[in-house]
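Quick check before the chapter quiz. The format below is the same one you will see on the exam, so make sure you can read both the input and the output lines.
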Amino acid sequence: MADPMSIIGGIASCVQLLGLLIDSTKGVARFCNQICDALQELERIKYKLELLQKTLQRVEEDLGSVDDHIVLPQELWQLVGFAVRSLEEDIQELYGVCSKTRTIKGHALFLRIKYVLLHRDSTMRMLDRLGRSENTLTCILELINL
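Here is the expected output.
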């Protein structure tokens, strides 16, 4: 007859294995969802980039038509310039990722897997940085409107 501690240890091991199996299944399901959504995700990113670029061009045109030294202090103009450059750099960097993966449109499974494995995490980090740059410019423009 087996000793009770061995039985408890065996049950605990089975529970741990079951938990590991559940976590692995969740990870595989998340990975499969990311692969399926890769094309739509990239299309949304491209659309957002196009909108941001058009908006940024409009802001630059509007700010360029103002006699900057009379209306706003030099420091604020430098801050606007920094925010605009930062946003432009982030947009170009994301365009680079999108252009590397534009062949995904062929719906080739391999290319979607490659995007998820190699580019998705860095793309999400770039999108976060883009959002912060966008928020910075928005705050500066709100200051100008005061």
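If your answer matched, good. Residues 80 and 140 are 7 Å apart (CA to CA).
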